Each structure stands twice: as C-alpha cells, then as structure tokens.
Batch of 4 targets.
Target 1
Amino acid sequence: MLTAGIDIGSMSTKAVIFNGQSYYKAITPTGWSPRQAAELVFNDLLKQAGHSPDQIDFIVATGYGRISIDFADRVVTEITCHARGAAYLVPGTDLVIDIGGQDSKVIRINEQGQVLDFAMNDKCAAGTGRFLQVIAAALGVDVSELAALSAGKTPLTLNSMCTVFAESEVISLISQGKEKGEIIAGLHQSIARRITSMVQRMGALNRITFTGGVARNEGVRKSLEQQIGIPVLVPEDCQMAGAIGAALIAQDFCRK
Ligand code: ADP
C-alpha cells in the first residue's frame, strides 16, 4: 500500500510517501499559496519516489492549509497527525512538544500515538517559529544560526513576549551594546518557559519528543530540557512529523 501525507503549514509544506516500511519526503516554503505549495511538493515527491499520482492509494492532508487542496482523500487535524508521527519516530514517546511557524502545542499520547490530552497556543505569535524569525531578522541573522550564536551564553532577561514589543526590546538592547548571543539565549529561555508551563499541566512523563521546525534549534531544545528536567529528544525528521503521521493514518484508512 502506498499512502501520502501532506502537511501544509504556515511556513513550510511537507509531504511524505509511505510504503508501509519506509518513506520519501519533500519540503518547500508555503509562500502565498498553500494550494500551489502542496501541488509542487507532492509532484516533487512523486518524481523522487518514481510513482504516478494514480499509484497512491490514499492521501491525508493536515496543517493549517489542509482544506485548500482538492486532491486529498481526507483531512485530519495537526494534533492527531503530529502525535502519530512522533510515536513512529520515537517509540515510547508520552509527550510531544510541537513548535511550528504559527503555533505551539503539547500533546500527551499513548504507545499507539493516540492523543490523550493536549494544550495549544495559537492565539499569538509569542513562542512560535514566526517569533524567532522576526527577532532573528531584527538581529540580522538567520533562524538556523540562533543555536550556535547562543551556545554557552548567559541568557539576558527579556521583559516582552509579544512579538512586536520583543522586537523593539531587542533593538534597544542591541543599541545598549548587549551581546547578540545573550539576547538570543534569553529568547530561547522565554520560549521554553511558556512551553514548560504547558508541559507541567500534563502530569508525570518519561519520554518527551520535540517536533516542528523549531525543534531544529538546539538552543530551544536545551533550554526546554533544563527547565522541564527530563531529556527532550529531537528525531532527525522533526519537521516532517505531521506529514509522516498523516501518511501513517492514511495507511489505517486503506486497511478499513
Ligand atoms: P509550519 O508547520 O507552521 O509551517 P514548521 O514546523 O515548518 O512550521 O516550522 C517553521 C519554523 O521552524 C520557522 O518559523 C523557524 O523558526 C524554524 N526553523 C526552520 N528551519 C530551521 C532551522 N534550520 N534552524 C532552526 N529553526 C528553523
């Protein structure tokens, strides 16, 4: 059985083709048209995997742009897909922390990757990938450089978490001569603090898996681990977790 999962996020669109044992993956920026991004990434993936569209038995779409595509057989929420993807990538996970471009969530799951409980922040950009992008731009660096720049630095305390006010605060800290790395370490710490308060509401935990694009930032991972007090694991395909989960759920639909 060949199935596909497409995760149309606010920043990036991810797609996976799963054959029951292994998967092909592709990612592209979502840009202004979620529909175009989904078609582009899916066609790329088909080429890479050497399949034609009619060979794919079932397609599940997820992510904020999931309703904008017309070639999916089903749409499934991101929470369900991330949970399933994280349980596949890191067996034994009992809590998923997902930080994407426009929201952050913590999801308590069972061994099968089914959702037991969750908490989500999608009301404002604070503590999301978008927040980090805005601040990185204000500091003249790329998000992929944040972890290295902040490694080993003492975090500065930041008073603002609202993206707009935090950007002004960062600009003023720079003009006071504060060091970039210390400012970034402070940002990571404040994001981790918000997430930690969500995690603490989920009860006792053994294995935490961190997914979404922000999981690629080792500074945020470390800060989370320090504040939560147990290991926070990042699978190599952390950003693909939603698409992987969608492709796995598509396999379930095929078996029904
Ligand atoms: P969405 O699903 O909303 O499109 P993603 O899960 O793709 O979001 O995450 C996007 C975020 O991931 C970006 O806003 C950025 O902060 C972060 N990110 C992406 N690539 C990297 C990278 N190489 N290093 C660190 N952070 C990254």
Target 2
Amino acid sequence: MSSLTPVALACEYLEHPLAIERPDPRLSWRSDSAARGARQTAYRVVVAKTGADLLAGRSLLWDSGRIESDASAHIHYAGTPLASFQRAAWRVQVWDETGVASPWSAVAGWAMGILKREEWRGQWIHSPAQVSSNSPYFRRSFSLDKPVTDARLYATARGIFLAWINGRPVSDEQFAPGWTDYAKRLLYRCHDVTALVNDSGAAGERVLSAQINDGWYKGPVGWEGKAHIWGGRCELLMLLRLEHADGTVTWIVSDDQWRTANSPVLSSTFLKGELYDGGAEPIGWDRAGFDAKGWHKVNATAIGDAPILQAHQGPPVRRLSEVKPVARWQARPGSWIFDLGENIAGRVRIRLRAPAGTTIRLRHGEMVTPDRQLYVDNLRTATSIDVFTAAGTGEEIWEPRFTFHGFQYVEVAGWPGEPPLDAITGIVLGSDCPAAGSFTCSDPMIDKLYGNIVRTQRANYLEVPTDCPQRDERLGWTGDAQAYIRTAICSRDIAAFFTKWLQDLRDAQNADGTFPNIAPQVPGLGGVWGLERGDAAWADAGTICPLTMWRCYADKDILAAMFPAMVKWVEYCDRTAIEGINIRYHRDKQFIVFGDWLQVDCWTPPEVIMTAFYAHGAKLVAEAAEVLGKQAEATRFRELHEKVKKAFQREFVKADGTILGKRTDDETQTIYLLALHFDLVPAALRAAAVEKLVACIAARDWHLSTGFVGLPYLLPVLSANGRTDVAYRLLNTTTYPSWLYPITQGATTIWERWNGWKKEEGPADPGMNSYSHYAYGACGEWLFSDVAGIDLLEPGFKRMRIRPRIGGGLTRAEATHRCIHGEIRSSWTHAQGALTLVVTVPPNTSAEIWIPTSDTASLREAGKPWPTPARHEPGYAVIETGAGTYVFTAAFSTTAATTSAKSASAK
Ligand code: BGC
C-alpha cells in the first residue's frame, strides 16, 4: 500500500474555480499520510472534459504521464488548449518513497472564464433617472423549452451587486465583484446556477434578478467624503450561459429587455450605513408570475473596449460567522445598547414583530463611555447608522445588504418595548481565506493576544488588506499590508487573496516606478501631496509581499508577475538617491513622510528608514531575479545592495556600533531593528548594535517604542541575536506601551495605538484611533516561528525548522500551520525538568528539529533512544527527519534554556 493519498486538489489556489483565464492553470494537491518518511517520488495528472470521461479514460485533455518529481504544487497544465467556458475534470496519482502508486485522488475540476473580449455578450445596463434608490432592482424573466445541463452566471458591476434566480441567491458572496482601480480593471465572478435554473422543472418561466449599489465605485471612499471617484453611474453586466443536453447554448444577458425599479433600500453606503423600508418591498418581484408592467425599461450601452474585464482571483467576501450579544442595557429612554463581546467587521441581523412603519435605528460603535453610552467619535465621518422600517407583516428578519461597520456595540432605538437579548445577531464579514493555523500556550493573556490578532486580521482582510474597518478610511494601506503579511500567513491561507491584491498593487504603480501608499489608489485622496507616491515601508510592499508569497507558498509565478514592477521601484530609489543614500525626504517633498508611524515618543529619521528599505529592496529584487533565473539582474541588484549597504554604514553607523540619522542624536529601537534585520551592520559591529538595541529597550524600562515600521522585526531580531529573554520580557509586559496593555484595558482586537483607550482616561486622540488595526499584531509571526518554533528553511516549507525557544515563564505552547504540503505541528510542554515535544512534519517535506535539551543522553522518541543527533547547538540537540509525527522527551532545565537563549546566535 502506498504511504500517500493525494487530497485537497486545487487549481490556482482555489477549490473548483469557475473562471480561470490563464492557458496553463497551476494544479496542486497535498498528500495525506501518517507514515514516517512519506515522500512523493512521482506523479501523474490526468485531465478530461468531464468527470465521466476522466473515469472512463476517454477524451483526455492532458495526461502528464508519470513524472519523476516530488513537486505537488503549482504544476502547470500542459494539455490541449482550453477554450472559454470549457470545463476540465482532473485527478492525480502519486508514487511514494518506495515507488508504490497511490490510489487515484477524488475528481476535482475547474472551468475556464471568458478569455476573449469578443466573447462577452450583452450590454451594460443601468436604471433611468426615475429610479431614485441607490440600490435599484433589475429583473428579466425568460422561458426555457428544454432542460439545462450546465448553467453558469458571469456577472460584474460598476458598483456592487447581488443576484438571484427565481428568488434564490446565486451565491453567498457579499460586495461582489470587489474593489479594483475600476478605470483599469473590472473583475467578474462566475457561479454554477444549474440547480437554481432547474428547480422549477424543465420548462417554463424563470427570473434572473439583481440589485446594484454604489459600493466603492460610486459611494464615498476615504476621509474626504468624496464619492463618484470612478464614475457617477452604477451599471450591471450579466451573462447567463445555459447549456442543454444536445450541446446547444441559450444566452440570457443584460440588455434592453430588462426592467428596473426602486428597491426597499432607500440608500446604502459603506461609510454611512443603510436605510431600508420593509414596506416598500415589491412582493414576488424576483419570481415568475410577477407583473412588472409598472417597472422601467433599463438603459443599455455597449460593453466597449475598456477597462480590462477579468475574473476575480481571490476569495469572495462572505458571512464568516455569527456572534450573539453578551449583554444589553438601557442607555437612554427608548435606546438600548447591545454588547457583542468582541469587536467585529460586519453588521447585525435583527428579528422583530412591530407595527407597520415602526422605525428601528441601529448605531454602531467600538467602545462605550464610562457612563455606558455609545462612543463614536473615532468613526469620524463614517456615521455607521442602519435604519429599518417595518412592513408590519408579522415576524420580520432584516440584515443590511450593502454596508458594513467596525463595531462591538450597537445602540438600538425605536424598538417597540424592550428588545430581548437575541433581538440582534452580529454577522462577521470578511474575505473567506481558508483557516491555516492555530496557536495556544500556557499564558491566557498571550492566548488572548493571539485571538485578538486573528480577529483583527479577519476584520481587515475584507476584499483588500485594509488598515481598519470602522472609520472613514478602510483603505488598502500598503505599509500595513507589508508589515503584517507574514503574520497573516500563519493563521490563514491568504495566497489567493494576495494574488488579487498584488494585481491591484501593480495597477497602482506610478509611471516613475513608485508604489503608492494605498492600493487600489483612490484618485484625489490625500490633499496636496496625495497618496500616489508611497513613503518607504509603504511603497516597499511592492517587493516585500511578493517575496513573502514566494517564501511561504513557493509561488514563482507571483514573483514573475511582480518582477518588472519590483525592478522599476528599486530603480526609482536608485535614481533618486545621492551617493547611495535615499534622501527623497529632504529633496523631494512630493509625498507624505510617515516615518516609523505611531512610534512612541521618539523620531526615527526618515533618511535612515528610506535607505534601509532601499537596500533591502535591492536585496529582494536580487533574490527574485535569482529564483527566476535572471542572472544578469541578480548580479546587478546584488551589487546595488552592496553599494547601498556601504553607504548606509558610511553615513549612519559609528565606529562603536551606534546608529544615528544625519540630523539627530536620537537612537531608536527601530533604527537598530532595521539595520540588524536588513543585515546592514558590519559583522564586527553586530554584537555592539544588538547591545545598543537592548540598551534602547532598557532605557524605556523594558518597553517597546517602535511604530508600524520597526515593530514586525522587534521580536525576531532579538531572538535571532541571542536575546530571546528580552523578547519574552517585552511580550509579557502589561504596562503601556506593550502588546498586553490593551488587553488589560479590555481589548478584543489589536488597536492602532497602544494607549487607544485607558480605563481611567478614556480614548486617546479620537481623530485617529482605531480599535481594529492589525499592524501591531505583526508579533504573531514570532509566536509561530520562535515560541512554538515553526519556520521555513526552503520556499513553501519544503524544508522547515522546528526550534521552540522556551522562555518567558511559559510551560506549554502549541502551533499548527497548514503549508502547501500539509499540516505542521509543534507542541511542547515542560514540567519538573522534563520536556515533551510533539512534532508533525507533513508528507513530502523534511525538517530540522531542534530539541531544547542540553542532555542528549536523556533524549527519547516514543520512549526509545533516538539515534545520534545530527548536531548540537547551545541548548539544543538537532535532528534531521522526514515526514511523520514524533514524540520527543528529554531532560529540560529552564536555567539552561535561558542561558542558551542568550548565547545562541542566529542560525
Ligand atoms: C492609516 C494607517 C496608515 C497611515 C499612514 C493611517 O490613517 O490608518 O494604518 O498606514 O495612515 O501612516
């Protein structure tokens, strides 16, 4: 029997995608196996037009034949060219380390999208001026005279849309088709609606219906309240492709046959909220038999040549979970506050019986004041109020359709009588990135911190990686995205999400090579300087994110797609630098300087940050070039990196290892973190620089002072340089500023500011004070890589290192991470001088496991002595293994662990 069973088949990271546009989609699988050393030595992929053909072995589109290879991800389809709309079914067989073949996997599939512009049919449709709702309804009824075997709906909008067939939603997606720079690119989604089309029998009338809303396209985006950024007219484009048993196809497309009318959504925007009149719902409008004579004819216009129409490559926004209120109190006569117990991005669903015309007002906020009133100052212009007017038809259930808020508390006014606790339910919205990891340890505060990190990520990975979900920003801030991406990967599979966003980032790059501060760009936002040209660390998302994708997902294609843009950006830095020093700040005030944003009582000079990121960018481009086999570029950018590194040392690094900017004597934690993490310190001065970093921390009585830029590197740099003791000390600190301080103040999410809310004093600066901002959660990576000890040594975790760094008073920690090969697990506990470490290494990978013991003789695996370790490191016995689950036990001493934490240097 084979030790491997191929499972989790995916195409372009997605399970059964319906709109693939590249001719050579990448296929991936994982192998299930509990066997030690399980390893793939060969694979065979077979693709056919249908599952039945595949199983019968006929009409094959591709048979890779047996390929001697251990690759199980990103295998390019190389069969018969595929046409638009074509479906493909596939399965895979693998051979294990002993050459035994696995059974065939289950059948998976994908379908091609619309590959050529001329294959689009139909017209853009919009409502005439008589329709006043900003969320109008559209309908088209049609009849069929023969059964449908395959029905797929392709849909996009200038705005956002919902669609139904015979009154049933075509999907559970929210805010489709998502957000892009609409001037350049509009995305579409495809849904298999065969069951919906057929649910009323083989023949007869059906109704395809939709509703569109302003969304990002026409609604207000950003703090200046500007709307109509991409256009002033919402439009819809739909193609329903109905294939019959005889192979013929019927098309129902958006065109002048459609009718439109006001909907009960009187108005709805992301920032202000939704106004809904239940009494205005035209009953039965979305089903057969409805008399639409009073409805208006739509206006229809040609599809035209621009912008690009492209399938959405990322996960949709969905309702991810529901939250029940934990408390409720009367805030004022007639107004009640519900506490959801956690801060979420989403909205609420209400359930009530009320006389017709009863108006319920829902106001959302993240905090309540000491006198238990809703606190909304920090929302700025995002008023976040939903209003529902009852139809009076018995029990009514309502949830807004086209808005979302960032909130924990809801103030409910207008309820007839006293609303019960279950009158409202919190609906969590976010991009549906698959779960990929977990973390827990013996300290409940750190568990809370991890929970807050995960919750904040969920609230801010909503179509694009945003800064916050509540106030009038909710923008794709590039600096936040790059600071946090590595942590994000620990707990969620964000590969498809970032594949889409990196397209947004490429679209947002300026002609001069600069990447912006936000992607998608929002033309005109940001005052005189605008946000088009990004500050260091913001613009550097353009190099850092793709390299992170390469390292964590072994995704070469994303590197190839980003490479020209990465080169342009670093060339820009080079062009504008003077003698290797990037001083755009001083000579070119064409952009806003954020510096080490929200650093605490210090100032990291921008020229140091800029030059450090410039050097780092050159190094990342060289690494990408190397991976892509572009030797000349690899050499060119390696040399550039060396040049900038020398300049950095010449200008900023003093003979004793002190690092200072040009015009200040302020040593900051971030200066040392950037210099050490980006390897800009001469080897001989590294130890001195580490000492100075620790001195900077000690000078603040062992508190951090970094802003968004330096923070992600703080714990990793300390650990990599033998100061895990300081890293744990910072992690365990509960006084301001620290990670745990907000938790002592009741935080259920990561805050934008360490002192966002103090129980005694209330809010910090309400002008900029989000309670759901993931940047400071970038310490999450270290919980995985150092506390539990899971880190990669080769791209895609093909080879990994399990090296728990035990300290900080913890007696137990456990993390799991599902990489492209399967689930990795590291779980340790220690008590009374005995350590247990349980490690799972997924099939088809290998690991270096560092077992924290100084007493190799005591080392056992499943009770038996382990053959000699491959090597010893201070405080560790290091072994090399392949796949499998291993239960190690060994003698363990906390004093030895602390000493070794201090002495072990980066490996
Ligand atoms: C955002 C940030 C962003 C910053 C730029 C803020 O208003 O919320 O997260 O990175 O501006 O410094």
Target 3
Amino acid sequence: MSCCPSPGASAAQIPAAALAGPRAASPLPARQGPSIERILAWYALPFPELIYQAQAVHRQHFDPASVELASLLSIKTGGCPEDCAYCPQSSHYDTGVDADKLMPVQEVVDAARRAQAAGAQRFCMGAAWRSPKPRHMQALAEIVRQVKALGMQTCMTLGMLEDEHARALAQAGLDYYNHNLDTAPEFYGRIITTRTYQERLDTLQRVRQAGIRVCCGGIVGMGESRRERAGLIHQLASLDPYPESVPINHLVRVAGTPLAQAEPLDPFEFVRTIAVARLAMPRARVRLSAGREQMPESLQALCLLAGANSIFYGDTLLVTANPQVQADQALLARLGLRVDAATHPAPEPA
Ligand code: SAM
Ligand code: DTB
Ligand code: SF4
C-alpha cells in the first residue's frame, strides 16, 4: 500500500462520480459515546502515545497475545441493486463479478467445515442483497443451525432486515449480524444513494431487539476526511450498546467501481483509526478486515499492536483476495500470537 502525505484526505480527491450525492444531516445517536472532538484529540496524539493508550485499554479487556480468526463466504454473489461506490458486487458497475443465486445449504455447510478444519472460529456469510426475501428465510435459518452445530460462531450479513427476519435468524441461533455504517452520516450520500443512514440504524436496532449480537463497522480510504473518520467512530461508539464486533475495512480499490482510483490513505492514518476504535469501544472485538492483502505484514502487525484482535482468515474475502492461509499462520507464529477457544466479548456495563 502506498503512502499519501495528507492524513486528512479530502472528498475532492476522489472521482466526481463517487461524490454525486448530497451530504446528509447527522442522525441523533441513541447514547452519547465519546464526542467527535474527543475522538479527534485521540487521532491527533503523537503516534507512540496513541498506541500506548490503545494498548493499555486493550490489555484491560483482552489478552494481547490472543487473536480471533473468522472466515468469510459469499453465499449469494453479485447483482446487488444497491449502488455502494466501493462494492464489486453492485449491479451498477461493471466489475466482472457475475450474479449468482443463494448457494445450496449443503455447500455452505461444507465450506464452513473446511474453514473450521483450517482453524477458523467464526464463519461469516455474506449476501449481495438489499434485503433478504421471505422465500430465502427457511434456507438461511437451516444454514445457521447446521453451521452452529459444527461448533462455530455464526455471523450473517444480508442487508436490511424486517423484524420477522431478525427474529427468525435469532431463533435459528445466529450469533452476530454484520451491518456496517461504513462512514460518517455527512459523507454517506457521496458513497451510497440507494439507502439512507437511518435505514442502516433501523436494521441495527431490529437486530438488537431480536437478541442478536451486533457486528458493525466501516471502511476508510474512500476519500473521507479525518473528521469524517472520527464521525464514523462517534456513530459506532454511540450505538446503545456499542457493537460487540467492529470491522475496520481498508478500501479494496476494485476496477470498475467509482472508487477504483481513490487516493491511497496514509497507512499510519489507518493504524490510528484502529487505535481510536479501540479507545472508543474498549470491550469490542476490533477486526482488522478488508485490505490486508494490499498491506505489508509490518503494517498488519502495527494494527494488532494498536488494538485489533480479529482478522478475516481464508484465501478470499467475499470476492476479492485475502492473504493465503499459510502466510497468515506464519505471520501469527512470527508474532507469537495465539488463537484461543472462541468467546463473546463481555457486555458493556450499564
Ligand atoms: N449487502 C450487505 C450489506 O451491504 O450490508 C452485506 C455484504 S457487504 C459486501 C458487507 C461490507 O463489506 C460492506 O458494508 C463494506 O463495509 C464491505 N466492503 C464491500 N466492498 C468493499 C471494498 N471494496 N473494500 C472494503 N470493504 C468493502
Ligand atoms: C466486513 O465489514 N467486511 C467483510 C464482511 N464485513 C462481510 C467484507 C469485505 C468485503 C471486501 C470486498 C470483497 O471481497 O467483496
Ligand atoms: Fe450490495 Fe452490500 Fe455491495 Fe452495497 S456493499 S452493493 S449492499 S453487496
């Protein structure tokens, strides 16, 4: 990954097509997490001081030598009606990803078994939908039951959910639902025009009400400013309670998407974002998510030092490449990191 001199990359640096939408007013957060000013002050700390503070908080809640491994599978690929400017699976862009149907239950369970045999503790299943249809729910519930029966933690990301969909997934035993806020409210309309920030918040609330743990994070490197990165962390930390699992994705620039030529983010700004997420959400699992394939191992190690304690593990993410399993095993061994039996983060105190 190359380095760009300005940590506060401005929206003017990304292609005009990706900047077509309006900037929206911020929705009111449900609870007051750290203020944007507080978060910006963390971002502005000297790098060693920021890493020290993030490490100290990390160690209060987690063993710093323990990392969680989650494998991903795209159970329904491509042809998505949403226009997310970063996404290779949107039908709005010509990225060479073909649209497919929902995978048969048995194929998904076989893939989960292989991921478990390779060492994954959690199996995350993604579908390129705006939202699942009622006719999909029986197969989805069966997938959750069978993957869980293997002894793996289960996570799904299927787009927006109705109450009854969330309840059906909860009843099947789904451990986590991934639904990202992706960026700050005021930048959202520049990236996605086919849904609103409020719709994302509504689904997150339905997931919580159904009793499913929340996995919610975002993407950096889309041309947002530092204040907008801080705005994302503020929104996440203001969810009530904040998510148990927070994926921080680095944009994977995919040819054919409006963000294919986005200005690269300063790598240290990415590490700062991980550290700030750790400080703002001390008990969450902070997940070093998309973008590792494009990062040197030294940068990944810095992210783990800054408070990340989970990675996506397996040769592909959903449709783009991830580091090879053997390379990750070797990296964990070189860093002296362990993979323990899966646990869920302790709930945030009231
Ligand atoms: N369709 C569902 C949704 O959007 O919620 C689930 C699948 S979607 C691919 C899950 C997440 O993947 C997105 O919210 C985004 O954060 C991440 N993602 C997608 N494309 C990416 C890219 N090119 N680089 C980094 N992260 C990406
Ligand atoms: C998340 O926040 N990142 C994962 C998972 N949740 C579903 C997806 C990353 C996708 C990266 C691009 C791709 O391969 O499609
Ligand atoms: Fe569809 Fe999800 Fe991709 Fe957006 S991120 S285009 S909703 S698959």
Target 4
Amino acid sequence: MTEKILILDFGSQYTMLIGRRVRELNVYCEIVPYDKAHYDASVRGVIFSGSPSSVRSEGAPQADLEAIPAGIPVLGICYGAQWLAWKAGGSVEQSDGREYGRASLSVEDASDPLMKGVKASSLAWMSHGDTITRLPEGFHSIASTPSVSNAAFRVDGKPVWGIQFHAEVHHTEEGRRVLENFVRGICGCKGEWTPANFIEATVKSLRETLGNDNVVLGLSGGVDSSVAALLLHEAIGPRLHCIFVDSGLLRKDEFDSVLASYMGMGLNVRGVLAADRFLGDLAGVTEPEAKRKIVGRDFVEVFNAEAEKIENVRWLAQGTIYPDVIESSAVPGASATIKSHHNVGGLPKDMKLKVVEPLRLLFKDEVRRVGKALGLAPEILGRHPFPGPGLSIRVLGEVTPEKVAILQEADAVFIDALHREGLYDKVWQAGAILLPIKSVGVMGDERTYENCVALRAVTSVDGMTADWARLPYDFLASVSDAIIRKVKGVNRVVYDICSKPPATIEWE
Ligand code: XMP
C-alpha cells in the first residue's frame, strides 16, 4: 500500500464506521488501538476516534502526539477532538444534555480546507456527554451549532483539526464531504484503493506466499468464504481444495444448489454428506450454547477428516474479514462490548497448518465489491447472512430431523415469496423459526393441535443493531396462508416485531 490513513481507536462504537467511510473514498485505512500506532512511510494522515471515556476522567486514553511524524495531518473526532483541545490547555466540561442527535451545523470559516464546499448550514449528528467550552490559544472555531460554539476547530499553523460532530454517520449531511476534504484534500490521498487494485495486489502476494503449496478451505455458502475461495483460485487454481459440508442444517435444497454454483465457478470443491452425524449428535440437546458447540465441533472434525485425505496440504485458508480482526484487538469500551458472533467451524488446531486470510483487510461491503469483480454468482453474492450453526438454532429446543424438515419447508415458502415480490434484497436477513410450542387451530371441520412458526425479517447495516422489517401486511398474510396450507405440521404463523437491541436477530 503506497498511501494509508491511520485511525486511532479510543473505543467508540463508531470507530469501524469511520474506517468504512474512508474506504468508501477509495482510500486504504487501518484501525489500531490508540496506544499501538506505528507510523510507516505510507501514512498520509491520522484520525482520532471518539471514546466512551471523558478526557476529564482518570485513566482517560492518551495518544502519543510526539510519535506522529511532522507534517502529517491529524483529525480528531468527538473524544479525539476534545482530547486535542484539552491536551493543549482548553476547557472540556460536561455538556448540558442537548448534544445528542441532530443539530444544525453552521460553517464559521468557509476558507478552511476542512470546510471546503460544505453547505453554510446542514444537519450533523452529535453524541457526546462532554463539550469543549473554551479552545486553547492558537485554536479557532471553524463550525458551530446553536448549543456548541466549537463544533469544529483548526489549530493555527498546524495541520490539526477537530470535529465534535460525527462525520462518519449517515445522518450528518456533509459528513462525507468533510471526510473527503480531510482524506483527499488535506492528506492528499489519491484514492487507489479499488477492488481491481486489491485483487491484483492480493493475487500477486498470494502467489508469492503460497508458492506451489496446496491450500484447503472450508466453504459455508456465504459471501466471505466464497470470495476468499475465488481470490485463492485466481492465484493458485486447482491447488486450492475447497470442502463444503452438508450438515443437514442448511436451508431447503441449499447444499445441492450452492455446490452446483461453486462447480460452475470452476472451483476445485468436494461436497461432504454429514447430515446424519450432525443430527445424531444433536439428539436430545436443548441448550442453545450446547447446540452451537456440537455443530462447531462436528464441522471441525468432518473438515479435518476430509482435509487429511488431500496430500501435501500446508495451508488453511479462512474467510476472516476486517471487523473480526479489529474486534480481537479492540480497545475496551463501547466498540468491544457490542460483540458479534464468532464463526462456527473454528481453526482445527491439531492440523499444524499455516493460516492464510486473504480478506483480513476488508469490510463486508468491500468483500461484496471484490466478489462482484471476481464474478461471484449473484445468488451467493447477494445472499442473506446465515448463522454458522444453521437451522439448529432456529429449531428452538431439541433438534430432530422431522422438525428441521418442517422448518426447511416453511422457510422456503417465506424466502421464495420474498424473492418473488422483490423484497429479498430490501431486508438484511430473513428466516423462519420453529417454536417449541403447539397451539390449537381449526382446518375444515377438524380441530388441529400443531406447531407454530415465527417469521423474522430485519433491516440492518452490519447485524450489530437491527430493526424489524416493515413487510407489507398483505405479503405477510399470503406467506402465513401459504405456510399453513403447504407445510404439514404447522397451523400458526407469527411475525417477530422486535428490534435489536433489546432482542437479537436469532432467537437462540
Ligand atoms: P444475533 O442473533 O446475535 O445475530 O443478533 C447477529 C448475526 O450473527 C448471526 N449469528 C451467528 N453467526 N454463528 C454464526 O456464525 C452463530 O452462532 C450465530 N448466531 C447468530 C445472525 O444470523 C446474524 O446475522
């Protein structure tokens, strides 16, 4: 990488979003804990993130300003801005509670390069308990809101800026422009971070690293492992050996259709039928975490057994993406407490393989862009996220082959209808859940006592927070009707209207 922006993470829940916004400007960036920054020749600028801490509290995180090479521009956001002001002798005090949510941002100094082209008045997103009440000498305000006079500042004669609003969130109308002004204008980044450049550089380095070695990769049917496979395939062709396991916990017909897609893309892939083993091991188990562990362990064992059949394997490839990498080194704070799930499958520790992770620098949306550029089949590219433990955690309570079959049918009716009505791509994730209760119904002249299925569809940007999708009533009515008519064993359908938080996307 010839140019990059370094983002120092002080623990804000928005840090990752800053990274995504910079990458959207086609500029490569890295997020590092605030006390672990390393400045090599490619660093063009530094951004300090927000933080759940207050600069006034004891033990508040401190950056090492001396370590930043002279002339490298710095932008502090929220806590980052307050810390810069406080460190230079300004005053930071508790705000009076009016600095949450939307605020009207007015540009005070239109000649400042950070404010170039920014509308004189626009909406900005505020979220802070502290505020800069007095700027230190040599700092001047370049933007304000009715309740915050120092919403943005510049340090005279130095390439240092601070903004107390969150330029990285969508609600900030001019956020993209402010970040672009910093990254492209002030730091002078050219914007060379494109899918094509990433693919070219990654394929080259994979070839160098892997030489003539064989690599094994577990495919899940999801976007990440599929894109990792295509990149490796591009680099080493049939020396990449892919394994796709049928756990019996996939969606209806998914194993066959996904395997066919993989073969159609030219991948060297073998399908392993292991449904009996997974379902056998799950018999009698009701506790969600216990189910997760069983499925995880079985994946590892089935994968291991299959991988051992391939000669000369030296590497295990994984579809790890950047948010996983950041989470494992996160600064304690808000960004660390909102955890996503670990992928099931884990690393087979006893295989003594070296690990190769071609996507470890990419955010999810970048993985999709790279996948598209590599010709990933659209049905895999646009696929909803699906939990590693599969339907085992959507059959609440004990998992039996009969219950999985009922759930697969109901789920297929729902998912097919979403596709047919053009709603599939409008939701982040959807699926059916089989509840461990029966209820009374009436069909024809018969009283029934059958299963209940819950439908879940959510909108989200990253799965960390989610809202229930406002699917049209008529659509829900027709899906409910079709499930009860077509799926034997179901006489009631309900729709989940909880957001996350306080609920989660999955029920277990
Ligand atoms: P929750 O239920 O925590 O899920 O709101 C957030 C996202 O993670 C997926 N998920 C899982 N993925 N193993 C996985 O690989 C799991 O055990 C697991 N549980 C939930 C879920 O489908 C959603 O996309």
